[in-house]
Amino acid sequence: MLMATFNGAATLPKVLEGCCQLVAPPGGWRLIVADNGSTDTTAQVLAAYAGRLPLARVLETRRGKNAALNAALALALRAPGAPDELFVFTDDDATPEPDWLLRLAQAAAAQPDYTMFGGAIVPDWVTAPPSWIERLVPLGLTFGITPPSQVDGPVFPGLVWGANMALRRGLFDAGLRFDESIGPTAGAYAMGSETQLTRRLADAGHRAWFCAGARVAHHVRAHQLALPWILERAYRFGRGKFRQDCPGVFPEVFGVPRWMLGRWLREAAGLLAARLRGDADAMFRRRWELAYLRGYCHEAWRAPRPGPRVLITSYSGELGGMELRMAQEAQFLKAGGIDAVLGIRPFPGSAAWAAQLRARRLPVAKFAPPPVFEQWRWRRLNRWRAQLWSAGALRRQRADLVHVAFCWSAYGATALWLARRCALPAVVSVHNTFPPGDVSAWHRPLLREAFRAVRGVYGATESALQHFLALYREYLPAGVRLAVIPNCVDTARFRPCTALRQAARQALGLPAEALVLGSVARLSPQKRPEALVKLLCALRPRFPDLFLVLAGSGALEPELRRLVGTLGLAQHVVFAGFRADVETLLPAFDVHLLLSQREGFGIATIEAMACGVPAVATDIPGNADVLRNSPGGLLVPLDDEAAVATAVAALLADPTRRARMGEAGRADVEQRFSMARVQAQVHAFYRGLL
């Protein structure tokens, strides 16, 4: 249990008395109080309870609640603990009920897929509030009181508040910390001390659960019932709201969404009308809204940007694994307090993808410099165009570092060159294996200039990194940071599930007891989907109830449908199309196949393994990095159809072996490719580069 306090001597005794009555959850508990440089008798109060509570005090003289909480975290993390252990946060004026910790522990044990937990916060009024407060004031935003109607279940993370909040330890082991630029501190401040953190976690894919039975009583002082104090809270809420919003979603004027300025004008006109009518209730509502909007605009116009900003971009031609990883990296960075924006080059389907990203509160911008390196024919003209216009476009992103994702040899080098022209440091991620090639004499000096911006390079696999270095090592600066950071899978979303298996088979029209081969991949030449159809044809004489599911779309689909018809397999091949919900589809498979001729990583392979499905892939760089020595999969030759058929047939004929491989594959993914592990690697890679 962690708590920050500043001059809390007036309320701490009641809170600590409540802690003395707590029923210990399984494994026990301890309390760490971060004293934020108190000048009253807080130290003496804490010392008086040291013998009655498992209490440790840490002194943090840097002013600010979040600085104090980070100091408490540093002490808590020194002791060993499991990733699913709960770190429970509360305030120095929130008195817990005796079963508080026990209830939170029970909720966390019952909901292993959730990482954030909130409980009920009820008011502890020093004096009865005036009727207008309970009638008009938003009690949650003003006093941190949860609505009585809130029941157990999933909850919006912004409703998990600091007086009654629990997060799993693994989040902090991965580098999560509170943003010290917001929250209570000396003078005026932006609200959102804890909700900024929970919203970041939500952006990274974590989920919150509300436990109504875990209750604390929040002490509300007499002076907090006065109108000026309440309006000041509205102003602070506006400042904090700006910090949590996603810029670029709506058209802006001076950094403020245009619609919000219109709202300010409407509220001002409404206040004037309410004054003329003598409507006191309407006047308060309008004043509260105007105070909130004033805080929002203040933060947009005057507040410094709280942290560094990374532009993540590439030379994309379609939505694939690399693009999804770029978005995931932006989420990881946001979870670590780093602002990230995706610079997308338009491609078919990019507009819909951008809308999805904005819905997930990820900033998106169009960034499409002329292809100086990626296109030969107009290279000279494109160079001048890039210098004249694209360098300015890059500067307008206000990035502190540019991340360029390479999907092929020179695809991304233009963005790297522009970063150098704008004096911005850069990092490179490599998402494919590509052979060494000759660099033209015209491009060579430009590449030398471009790579002077590079501070770090990581590959999605060791093979991808080594292929990149074989081509570009001579251009890299001395001391550049090198790493391998794999793709990852959400093991809470992708999991073995008998119910999903049955539902998916029913939806696809597959017999419940049939054997099913499946592949989640684009229907493109690189993925060789025709090899899957031929494999099915070769295996069906031995396994007459064998089916093939192709989950993906692409240019080869018409040709594949013709091949399926020619081979008489129309009743045994399901074209499932592109699926955003592949986690509901994968459990239906008995074996997942990825027979690519070239592969950067193969995200579908680890997604299948996370679902307990054995994975078979061609023995090529990328696939081999994932499956070599993995107990959950097999590597098969690229150019030996008979060997592939023999290996897959042996799997289909042995359900015990498939089950054993499925269990081992799931464990392997949890150890090597979990989101928490990869997020920690991403944070470590960027550390010191920004």
Automatic annotation (TrEMBL):
Coiled coil residues, start to end: none
Pfam families in the cross-refs: Glyco_transf_4, Glycos_transf_1, Glycos_transf_2
Glycosyltransferase among keywords: yes
Domain Glycosyltransferase subfamily 4-like N-terminal: 320-493
Signal peptide: none
Catalytic activity, EC: 2.4.-.-
GO molecular function terms noted in the UniProt entry: glycosyltransferase activity
Top-level class of the enzyme under EC nomenclature: transferase
Family of this protein: Belongs to the glycosyltransferase group 1 family. Glycosyltransferase 4 subfamily.
The protein's name: Glycosyltransferase
Source species: [Empedobacter] haloabium
